[in-house]
Each structure stands twice: as structure tokens, then as C-alpha cells.
């Protein structure tokens, strides 16, 4: 019998958007004191419900601004939902904005420990996996250089190497298979595919429908913050191509 690992129930996310533009912090403070700040409510997600079973590889489709990243951030615990419930039964590793958690002043070596701690890995475990992380990142001597001197691809490579060295139960991938150069992309996709063989659960956001078809067994569609379809990957991708993109892609 399939085991439920994630349950999203009636989740909603409200952002408060400033009605008028505030140019600087001083103006913000003055308006705040005078109680002149006016906000407009914006629901990025509304009443979203679905469940994910262990071993499911769920693709999340939707046009720009549909709410995909917001949903993943809520599941990862980066954002707190304004309403609804979330039940997670397993260790999550979110690959959202790779390297976003790095401290620019510190070297790659120092950031391995820092970022590892952010992901909840014990220090001993990071020590044990240290060489493997450095080797996979292919940064060579740059591992001793402050991260502020890295290119964006180098940061993403180090972030990916740290986050995937341990095996999580749920892996969240937000457009991360498109980072780095072609060689690293191939290598990172191989590492992810190896994790799949071990029955890992995956939540996957990509604008590449071809990649969703290749990686996922199930998919959902978000449209302006609402879940509008949920089913087997082929059926949902076809629906998305017809109803949202307006034509069938060649792949
Ligand atoms: N911190 C925030 N404050 C206000 N609005 C936000 C915030 N974060 C996201 N939004 C809004 O929520 C909506 C959903 O954004 P989200 O990034 O989840 O979309 P997405 O489906 O991931 O889009 P894309 O495909 O372009 O990455 C957008 O309209 C966005 O402007």
C-alpha cells in the first residue's frame, strides 16, 4: 500500500502589497508613524490541497506567477502559509535558490559547514562527507577562496553538491537542473536520477515539459494560485500544452 509522505490541505498564501510606492526607508518610517501605509491583499495561493505518496515524483506546472515557487517555499518551511495545514513526514532537502544561503565573506570550505548546518546536517556528518562535496563541486583550489569571488555557476555547483550529498526523503527541485554549464547539468541530473532509483520522493518545478515528462510520474497544474488539475504525468502535460500553452510542443 502506498504511504502518504506529504499532505497539503486548503493552503493559502496572502501577500500584502504596498498600494503606493515608497521610495526610501525614511519615507517608509514617516508613513508608518503617521499610519499612512496602505496595503492591498494579494493571494498567491488559494485553497490548494493535494497529497503525495512515498516515491512519487510530482511535477508542478504553471505559467509565470502561478504560485509554484511560493508553494515549494511553504512546503520547505521557508514561508509560513497564511491559512491551511501542511503535514510532512520525512526529511526535506530544498534545492530552491542554490547558494542563496551562502555567506559571501566566507570561503567555500567555511560555507560547506555553514550551509550544511542550515540544511540541518550534523557537523560530524559534514566532516565525513567533506571530500565528496569538494570533489563533486569541481571547484579545486577555489574552495579556499571567499564565495564573493565565485561566478553564479560556481556558487550553484557548490550549493548542489552540499545539498545532495546526504540522501533526503523528500527532494524539492525548483528549476535547479538548469544551473551550471552543460557538463555539470548532465552530472547533476545523473545524481538526481540515482536518487530516484532509491525511491526518493520528488517535487519538481520546471518550465521544461520535456523534463517533467522524463522525471515525473504525476503532475499538478497551478493557475493563478489555484490547483486546477492533478493526475498522471502524461495526461496532465497534454492538458497543460493544450489549455495553457495553446499548442502541443514537439519533443
Ligand atoms: N514576497 C512576495 N511579496 C509579494 N508578492 C509575492 C512575493 N513572492 C511572490 N509573490 C507573488 O506571488 C505570485 C506567485 O509567485 P511565484 O514566484 O510563486 O510564481 P511562480 O509560479 O514560481 O512563477 P515563475 O514561473 O515566474 O517562477 C506572483 O504574482 C508574485 O509576484
Automatic annotation (TrEMBL):
Family that this chain belongs to: Belongs to the ABC transporter superfamily.
Stored InterPro entries: AAA+_ATPase (IPR003593), ABC_transporter-like_ATP-bd (IPR003439), ABC_transporter-like_CS (IPR017871), ABC_transpr_TagH-like (IPR015860), Bact_Polysacc_Export_ATP-bd (IPR050683), P-loop_NTPase (IPR027417)
Species name: Herbinix luporum
Keywords recorded for this protein, A-Z: ATP-binding, Nucleotide-binding, Transport
Protein name per UniProt: ABC transporter domain-containing protein
Domain ABC transporter: 30-249
Keyword ATP-binding appears in the UniProt entry: yes
Pfam annotation, one family: ABC_tran
Gene3D superfamilies named in the record: P-loop containing nucleotide triphosphate hydrolases
GO cellular component terms, A-Z: membrane
Amino acid at each position: 500500500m502506498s504511504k502518504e509522505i506529504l499532505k497539503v490541505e486548503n493552503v493559502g498564501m496572502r501577500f500584502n502589497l504596498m498600494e503606493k510606492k515608497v521610495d526610501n526607508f525614511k519615507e517608509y518610517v514617516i508613513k508608518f508613524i503617521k499610519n499612512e501605509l496602505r496595503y492591498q491583499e494579494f493571494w498567491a495561493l488559494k485553497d490548494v490541497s493535494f497529497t503525495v505518496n512515498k516515491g512519487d515524483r510530482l511535477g508542478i506546472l504553471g505559467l509565470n506567477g502561478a504560485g509554484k515557487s511560493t508553494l515549494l517555499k511553504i512546503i520547505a518551511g521557508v514561508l509560513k502559509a497564511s491559512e491551511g495545514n501542511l503535514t510532512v513526514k520525512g526529511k526535506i532537502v530544498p534545492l530552491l535558490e542554490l547558494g542563496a544561503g551562502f555567506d559571501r565573506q566566507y570561503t567555500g570550505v567555511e560555507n560547506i559547514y555553514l550551509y550544511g548546518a542550515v540544511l540541518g546536517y550534523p557537523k560530524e556528518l559534514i566532516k565525513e562527507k567533506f571530500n565528496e562535496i569538494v570533489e563533486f563541486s569541481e571547484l579545486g583550489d577555489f574552495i579556499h577562496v571567499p564565495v564573493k569571488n565565485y561566478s553564479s555557476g560556481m556558487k550553484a555547483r557548490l550549493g548542489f553538491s552540499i545539498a545532495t550529498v546526504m540522501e533526503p526523503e523528500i527532494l524539492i527541485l525548483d528549476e535547479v537542473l538548469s544551473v551550471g554549464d552543460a557538463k555539470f547539468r548532465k552530472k547533476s541530473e545523473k545524481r538526481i536520477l540515482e536518487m530516484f532509483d532509491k525511491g526518493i520522493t520528488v517535487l519538481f518545478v520546471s518550465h521544461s515539459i520535456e523534463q517533467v515528462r522524463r522525471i515525473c510520474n504525476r503532475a499538478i497544474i497551478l493557475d493563478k494560485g489555484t490547483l486546477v488539475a492533478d493526475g498522471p504525468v502524461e495526461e496532465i502535460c497534454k492538458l497543460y500544452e493544450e489549455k495553457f500553452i495553446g499548442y502541443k510542443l514537439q519533443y
